[in-house]
Structure formats: C-alpha cells, structure tokens
Amino acid sequence: MFKSLIIPAAVLALAASSAGFADSLTCRTQKRTVVVDLNSAGQPRYRVWNQPHRPSEKPDLQIVGGTHDVEGTGPCTHAVWSFRQGKAEYTVSGLGCTEATPPAGATGQLSVWVDGQFKQSWWCF
To answer: Where are the alpha helices (DSSP H) in 34-84?
Structure first.
C-alpha cells in the first residue's frame, strides 16, 4: 500500500539549510554582534564584537574549535553552536521551539554558562 520514498542528498541538504542549520549564524544583541561559522580549515569558530566595534574590525573575542549540532525535529529543528574558553561556555542557537516566547523578530539565542551553571541569555535579532 505504501511506497518507499528516496530523497536525493541534494534535496536533504537544501532542506537542512532552509531549516536553519546552515554553516553560519549571526546573532545581534543590544551590546554585541556574534558570528559563528566554519573557518577556512572547516573548524567551528565563534567571534564577538562588543559595541561600538564592527565586524569589519578585529573581534573582541574569538574561539576556534567548538561544536555544531542540530537539535529538535520537524519545524523545531535548529542549529546549536557551543564554544568553551576557560570556565565559560558560549552557546548560540537558531530559533527552534522553546518554552520561552521569543520577542518579535528574534532569530535565535545567545547563552552563557560558567562552571556549568547558567548565567545569562540574550535574544538574537
């Protein structure tokens, strides 16, 4: 009664990038701009520019060698990038399904943990 469906890899890749887990994410908060992407060697990279600095300048913080994962299913699927430096962990995630109601125009969230304890988060625009 049911036929199996084979989906070409190119179609899956297009669906993945349109679902919000491509190879980069930009997060703009009131006080900083964060860009997560893959560097030329293919390693995850986290760069931050605190106001008034701009991304055309040298970043105020750069961490190379984090993780890039996909969480959620269906319409809740989103990218999650995590980076560690010392006792701090920085996580930038796309906008998936969450218990919190994001403000209008939000595209994701930036969160900070220190020694494994949540410290603060900001919505990305």
So the answer is: none
